Amino acid sequence: MSTGAGVGIGVGIGCGAMVLATVIGLVTLSAIATVLPGPIGFLWPFIAILVVGVVMMFSPRTRPIATGILIVTLVFSIVVIGPCVGLLSGEL
Fold it and tell me: DSSP code of 62?
């Protein structure tokens, strides 16, 4: 598999993971709002995906896929997570 195809596959996996993480984050946020106040209940799935992408970077075989996952994760955090955390914490 070429590097470009691996990055494309990683982008697809990253997009699916972000949608799933958003759903899990919202469910977790509503479930543990009284125990853990603040946005941490919303952010943990996104942090987990980021950690998985960084760990995948250590293997040369999975590095192109991890690159695609990390690209989507970082773009999603700038465009979506940043404003959402600002709204949830009352900063905006």
Answer: T
